[in-house]
Fold this protein.
Amino acid sequence: MKKIILFLSVIMMLVTSCAEKDTFSIKGTLPGSDYEGKQVYLKVLAENWKDQVAVDTATISNGIFEFKGLAKEGAIIHFVELAEPSDVVRPILLVVEPGQIEVSLDSISSAKGTPSNNSYQALNDKLFAISAEMRALYQKAQSDTTGTFKEELEKQFEEKDAQRSKETFDFIKSNPKSELAAYLFATRSYMFSLDQMKEISGLLDPKYKSNERLKKVDARIQALDATSEGKTFTDLKAKTPDGKDVALSDYAGKGKYVLIDFWASWCPPCRAEMPKLIEAYKTYKGKDFEIVGISLDKENEAWVNGIKTLNITWPQISDLKFWDSDLAAAYGINSIPHLVLLDKEGKILARGLSADQAVDKLSELLK
């Protein structure tokens, strides 16, 4: 009998030990007393990595809430947010893993206490500081009405933006097998160069690669690679504003330099740059040069009105699918305006040009 009791005691000790080893707690605080008695959700990512699903609820008492449980599946992304959305208190992404996690929900929320959360919070602190510097540079540029320091301020802004991208890239690369790294790559891949995207994609845990968001990133990598400088253009086929079928190949590779302009009538930066393209078109139209507009509009009427209002006279095509455009996807476009310059044989000379850069390039080619 003593042996049986001893055996059961050992088993209980092992079970208790394992349970303690896997235990996590999230202790959170909120500012002020406005949230007393309200609920806080603990959420996980849905399978599509876009939506979130609540898995637990806590009630705020004396400005404090708490979640407890077992983290048997390793370090998993969760979100903590008020059940009633607030413009003041921001939700936060954290990693549930064994240990005690301290969360502060505020205008700038934070999470720390375990290795994954400490390192992710350190990244966020760096990114917040860089973003603050970028905002200051932007405000300084806005107040510089003479334009005296415009070039220098733009240079500093770009350097800060590159620093922000590098910090994020280095963080993902430091622990590429984690779910957090895969999720950050899926949601922030726009920050990286093609080479960086290729590098990270090859390092991620294969079990995440079937996720729809990462599939889209991989598809974009392939599109960017296929339409990189030196490659022959990828043909596009769509409708003109009056419903006719037209292809990019009707113009590209026909002995003219072709500037592909990805734009939309609803895009303020596109509209702001359009006068420069119109002036370039007037200057070079008769010199083996053409522009082809690829619109990301979603309504034909808005597209037509935009063309008319802006006095655009070059060829235009669109599939009217907004950001789901197959035309944009074929070139890996995730922001507009985006200009792609082709040589006379249809090879890509440059892409991602601003209107000023395109004009400078054309002045060299079409003297």
